[in-house]
Design a protein that fits this description.
Oligomer: single chain
Radius of gyration: 23 Å
Order of helices and strands: HHEEEHHHHEEHHEEEHHHHHHEHEHEEH
Mean pLDDT: 95
Low-confidence stretches: none
Helix content: 40-55%
Shape: globular
Number of strands: 12
Distance between the termini: 22 Å
Strand content: 5-15%
Largest sheet: 4 strands, antiparallel
Number of helices: 17
């Protein structure tokens, strides 16, 4: 998601390529045949931590020959190494800055440097594949898959990659049929069986992913599922006494105390993702309960947000979404027409994080009944038309990409 958004901000194709290389690898190495995403690859192999992943400088020099100097510079490789005498390959500076620096040093274009790095990685990957592989943790966790669904959905929409969108669809379909018992979610799938009661993060992450998937496909089923899961999440996890969501559901095995987590660490807390998702659902369905519960949580954590802001990264994003007068964009048009695609691309190819996007064809009455933003909307002059709104108060409808962009900005 970081690289996707950097691409939207800068239009630097480098970020697009990094995103695609990463997600292509996930599709190849970390995806279950039925669509879910595996959890992790182990750190150690043959009893030694990192052995599969790390490199010595002389290995790289022997494998890459004349390409080695640029590669070593870009990835900061040294004879001493950065991990127990060997090198973990990583880019210390922003990737665009390092690419420019290496290009200048090597007297090459940035495009040529990127191609050099690309073919060098393929050489090293082929060599690494000869090593003993680390173990695969093939659990499919609902929460982590929710994050992946959002990433693939956003990437598919923004980068025009149907295979990414399809991967998100396949994963969502897998979770909603396999990691589910009635209307309730299950936490984990492994060895052909789903088990364990889901936690708050399983619900909030998946709801968040389904909203992103709707914006990538405009399939109403994803919004319906998101709304259904939000209902269960509120019923099972909401604290009616003091507000906020508990980590465990009301039908979970009895614990000494039911805890709540609000701080964002390596992954965001279930509460912070729930706030973000509920605010978006409120904009989509105009249902006050969603917004009121989200705002209660923001009030609960206002003091910690002020005092320890670095521990609440995702919650701050949710707060920014709430305070920024986020825009609601409704587009009416024929899905396959060029004028519709231009309007949709205008939204997708620019960085507007505080925005929800809905779409319907002119005669799609189901969409117009389900989503208030689409009610009574029609095409103007037979052209695809965009309505930009704030809290359901809309500007004049527009039919050109230039006018839409001006309103969004």
């Amino acid at each position: 998601q970081v690289y996707i958004r950097a691409y939207q901000l800068t239009k630097k194709d480098l970020y697009k390529r990094v995103t695609e290389e990463t997600l292509d690898w996930v599709l190849t190495e970390m995806t279950h045949q039925l669509g879910g995403f595996y959890s992790t690859l182990d750190a150690d192999s043959e009893g030694e931590e990192g052995k599969f992943y790390v490199w010595q400088q002389n290995e790289i020099e022997e494998l890459l020959g004349s390409d080695a100097e640029a590669f070593i510079h870009y990835y900061g490789v040294t004879e001493e190494g950065n991990f127990e005498g060997k090198n973990i390959l990583f880019v210390e500076e922003p990737i665009s800055r390092m690419l420019s620096e290496v290009a200048k040093e090597q007297k090459m274009t940035e495009e040529d440097v990127w191609e050099l790095l690309k073919r060098s990685r393929k050489v090293l990957l082929a060599e690494r594949n000869k090593r003993v592989r680390p173990g695969l943790d093939d659990k499919i966790l609902t929460a982590w898959n929710g994050m992946m669904i959002r990433s693939f959905a956003e990437a598919g929409r923004i980068l025009n990659r149907n295979d990414y969108t399809n991967a998100a669809i396949k994963a969502a379909s897998f979770l909603l049929t396999t990691n589910r018992e009635g209307q309730k979610l299950l936490r984990s799938y492994k060895d052909g069986k789903a088990r364990f009661n889901a936690y708050l993060e399983d619900y909030s992450y998946l709801i968040d992913g389904l909203i992103a998937l709707y914006e990538a496909t405009f399939d109403l089923n994803w919004l319906k599922e998101a709304r259904s899961l939000a209902k269960v999440m509120i019923e099972q996890f909401w604290d009616n006494q003091e507000a906020g969501f508990f980590f465990t559901g009301s039908d979970h095995e009895e614990l000494i105390a039911r805890s709540k987590d609000f701080s964002d660490n390596a992954t965001p807390s279930g509460n912070s993702v729930a706030v973000d998702a509920l605010l978006r659902l409120h904009m989509l369905f105009n249902q006050e309960e969603y917004e009121s519960k989200a705002v209660m949580i923001l009030h609960m954590v206002s003091k910690p947000l002020e005092r320890f802001s670095t521990g609440f990264g995702h919650m701050l994003c949710a707060l920014d979404f709430y305070l920024s007068r986020p825009k609601e964009v409704a587009i009416i048009g024929n899905r396959d027409s060029q004028d519709t695609k231009l309007l949709l691309d205008t939204v997708s190819s620019n960085y507007f994080p505080n925005l929800v996007l809905v779409f319907a064809e002119p005669n799609d009455e189901e969409a117009k009944q389900l989503i208030p933003l689409l009610a009574d909307r029609s095409m103007v002059g037979g052209k695809a038309t965009a309505y930009v709104c704030e809290r359901f108060a809309c500007k004049q409808p527009v039919t050109s990409a230039e006018e839409l962009l001006e309103q969004l900005r």
